[in-house]
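Please, structure for the following, as tokens.
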Amino acid sequence: MHGQMVDRAAKEDAPSGRSNRPSLANFWMPFTANRQFKAAPRIFTAAEGMYYTTSDDRKVLDGAAGLWCVNAGHGRKRIAEAVGRQLLTLDFAPTFQMGHPIAFEFAERLAAIAPGGLDRVFFTSSGSESVETALKIALAYQRAIGQGTRTKLIGRERAYHGVGFGGLSVGGIVNNRRIFPQLPGVDHLRHTHDLERNVHSRGQPDHGAELANDLERMVALHGAETIAAVIVEPVAGSTGVLIPPKGYLQRLRTISEKHGILLIFDEVITGFGRLGAAFATDYFGVTPDLVATAKGLTNGAVPMGAVFASRAVHDALMMGPENAIELFHGYTYSGHPVACAAGIATLEIYLEEGLFSRAASLADDWANAIHSLEDMPHVIDIRTIGLIAGVELAPRDGASGARAYEAFVTAFERGLMVRVTGDIIALSPPLIVQRSQIDEIASILAGVLKSVA
């Protein structure tokens, strides 16, 4: 009904057939139940700091950093000004056999904070592209070192690695995989979610490190000589905040090194301060061979991603004739000048305001506030680490996801934006969140959970 009212109002306001308010009909929205949304739309028109403004002029506290990406908060003038200057200086230049200074500058600045010394940077336009790039680099690396039989990729159940065919294939969320064909030669480790043993974990759960031994099973099944790489999210975000058990990532690193398998971390969500360190690699003390990033790279202001590669991986491809292209891969917008300007400004904000470590200073307050919801109706588990939380609800009989979706809509109506995946409410506020706003998030969510049937 609301959507019909928006469309009708647009037509009524339209002089000479044009509208001051857009129709909702033409935009085919991603990962959205379009008909449901357009019947009762939730529209943001502005944002500043920790808050969105809605089309009916309400303030909504951002409990999800946009889409896990606005780590420094909304409306940062420094980023906007940097973008504006760059547009008037050099709006676009190709990076195929050409270059421009700001891409090299941004790569150099990123290298200075690179996770575990992975200081060779390949730019992309999104997290999905970063994952595709990392997978292709892994395959190219194995071929370059004379291991061309290593073509298999290992992902993990309940993983999300974007929407490219490579990411879908190594990903493990059923609805993402159900319709589309998968790449051959892909297998999956078991996920680490264990409600029975790890319920209501604060930080890393105690049980489940042995699940990393699944990689040994893959080696026994397929042969190490056939496996190129294994990819995991250090903390799985889009599947509902699945936190690695103590020792799990370390064991995965040991096994992958033992068998010559590259380890890829998908840090599209965890990168740039989400856990209380620049990268999950730093937080967990585990160094992979490749790291895929995006989202917080530019504070969500301009689409951009990046893959960080080790010197060993990079240098293995820098062989052969100097005039030969070492990696037949890239994107029109790799290292886009405007995205680089946004990224440099974002990085300066992170460093000057100490945002990489802010989640660590707030982690106890965050955990205490969110775990205070453990006794709320329908809550069966709460998981927290850094400034991330997953609140898992019991599903309704025969209507999986319906209860969490109702909580999502009710929260929006009461002034809080959260993320929902299945029956799990995911929280990840901007890193500038204040303690009073943490309490506000918990308070609103408590009221929501009491009201949801």
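The domain at 42-72+354-451 is CATH 3.90.1150.10 (Aspartate Aminotransferase, domain 1). The CA atoms of residues 69 and 296 lie 5 Å apart.
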